[in-house]
Every structure is written in structure tokens, then in C-alpha cells.
């Protein structure tokens, strides 16, 4: 009888200790998983931000210096070429066709377009003023979407438009990405977003964030 009571107590002391260890480790694992997920998401968004920044900065550099890609050498902005004349002057579809033709090559249009590319590219690369970059980039992408007018099956001369989708094209995808980057403060990782947010004039004006 004494031996039986001793065995029962030993088992009783062992099992509760085992259960407590398992219970204590579960919250730690959950916290670690959440932290890893948050870190992974932050780096994915930061990578997307840097990639988008390069898209805008490269467009600015190529159109400014004529690097031989979309803009031929010797036809850059610094050589007297117009960054908007080639694109807007060849718009052949959509409700703003005549308006874009009137804007093509205008000095104000060139300056606005190029400053937009530079400002958005720098903001995305540095991770600052992402809300402003999202608004400016969305407006720019919307105008370029209207210029190409994907809903049309034919151009104004009757030839096929070769549109691959009547609504969603890369301009709209870029605009959505810009909004997502701003909404999730993608500049806080691999960027200057946190330092930017601490500046007095930014703290007092949330739209600059």
C-alpha cells in the first residue's frame, strides 16, 4: 500500500510539470511566428518600393540624357528633345486624343512630367513622402492610361488597337502598388521613412507622411 501511494505521487508530480512547459512554449512560438511574418512583409514591401522607385528614376534618366533605350541618344531632354512630344503626339485613341496632341511638346508639360518622374522616383527610393508620391503617381498613371485607352478595340484610323485588356494594364497596376506602399508605410524598412516621420513639419501634416 505504501509503495502504491509513492508511485502515484511521483506520477502526479511529473505530468503537471510537463503540461506547464508545453503551455508556456506555445505563446512564445506564436509571438515568434507573428514577428517573422511582420518582418517578411516589411521587406517584401520595401523591395517593391525600391523596384518602383527605379522604374520612375530610370524613365527620368533615360528621357533626360537619351540613354538609347526608350529615348535615342542625342534626343534627350538636355539635347533639346521633348519628353512628352513623342508619346502625347502619337496618341491615336480615346476621348482626350486632341487634348493630348495640344499638350505634346509644351514646355509646361515637359517640366511637369519630368519633375513628376524625378520626385516620385526619389520619394520611393528614399522611402519618404510616400502619400504624396502615391497621389502624384496615380494621377500620372491615370493620364497615361487614358492616353492609351485600353477599352478601345480600334484606333481612330480604324486599325486594331492591339489592347490586351479592356481595363487593367500596367498603369493601373503601378497605381495600386503606389497606394499600397503608402498605406503600409513601406518606407520604414530599408528607407528613411521613420526619420522622415519624426521631422516637426511632417508630424504636424500627416499628408506629408
Labels describing this entry:
209 residues, mainly alpha, 8 helices, 0% strand, globular, DoxX family membrane protein
Overall description:
With 209 residues, the chain is mainly alpha-helical. Helices cover 66% and strands 0% of the residues. The chain contains eight helices and no strands. It has helices at 2-65, 85-88, 97-103, 107-126, 130-148, 170-183, 193-198, 200-203. α1 (2-65) runs antiparallel to α4 and α5 (130-148) runs antiparallel to α6. The longest helix has 64 residues, at 2-65. It starts with a helix and ends in a 6-residue tail after the last helix. Mean pLDDT is 89; it is low at 1-18.
Main beta sheet: none
How many helix segments? 8
Strand content: under 5%
How would you sum up the global shape? globular
**Structural classification:** mainly alpha
Beginning-to-end CA distance, first to last residue: 76 Å
Total number of strands: 0
Order of helices and strands: HHHHHHHH
Q: Report the C-alpha radius of gyration, rounded.
A: 28 Å
Low-confidence region ranges: 1-18
Mean pLDDT: 89
Helix fraction by DSSP (H/I, runs of at least 4): 55-70%
Organism: Streptomyces prasinosporus
Transmembrane segments: 42-61, 100-121, 128-147, 167-186
Keywords: Membrane, Transmembrane, Transmembrane helix
Protein name: DoxX family membrane protein
